[in-house]
Amino acid sequence: MGMMVGGKRGVVSEMNVVPLIDILLVLLVIFMIIPVHNKGLDALVPQSSTTAPDTPKRDDVIVVQVLADGTMRINQEAVTYETLDARLEEIFKMRASRIAFIRGDAPVEFGVVAKVIDVMHTSGIASVGLLTPDLEKGL
């Protein structure tokens, strides 16, 4: 704050605004830079089944089942582990959406299901979903 003494009017005080302007400019620059570096992770938000217009029809859904006795099925069609890759490539050859589900019976170990998921990824399926009994009721 600056003061002038003397003159006709006596003591006059006036505020020195230069430091205040400097602080405001620094804050302005800081708040302009922060949003540029604030990048979060992309997240897919689940959609409700009634509002999703591009939900696949029941016929379009591919479900790979791993049964308790070690056999596998693709939409109720029996398949072996050796022919699973070729059969999946044949099914998804002409499809635009590469989404499939896997359903394992309760006594099946997760290691077996993980191997089937790996085969599904290597055959070109972009997204593999785990089918639970609750989701199965909705399909």
CATH architecture of the largest domain: 2-Layer Sandwich
**Sheet of most strands:** 5 strands, mixed
Cα Rg: 33 Å
Distance between the termini: 74 Å
Number of strands: 7
The total tally of domains equals 2
Explain what the structure shows.
The mean pLDDT is 79. The chain has four helices and seven strands. The chain has two domains: 2-37, no CATH class; 58-138, Nucleotidyltransferase, domain 5. The chain has helices at 18-37, 84-91, 110-122, 133-138, and strands at 2-4, 12-14, 63-66, 72-74, 77-79, 99-104, 127-130. The chain is α/β, with parallel strands linked by helices and 139 residues long. The chain has a five-stranded mixed beta sheet, covered by helices on one side. A two-stranded antiparallel ribbon has the order 1-2.
Secondary-structure blueprint:
Elements: E1 2-4, E2 12-14, H1 18-37, E3 63-66, E4 72-74, E5 77-79, H2 84-91, E6 99-104, H3 110-122, E7 127-130, H4 133-138
Parallel strand pairs: 3-6, 6-7
Antiparallel strand pairs: 1-2, 3-4, 4-5
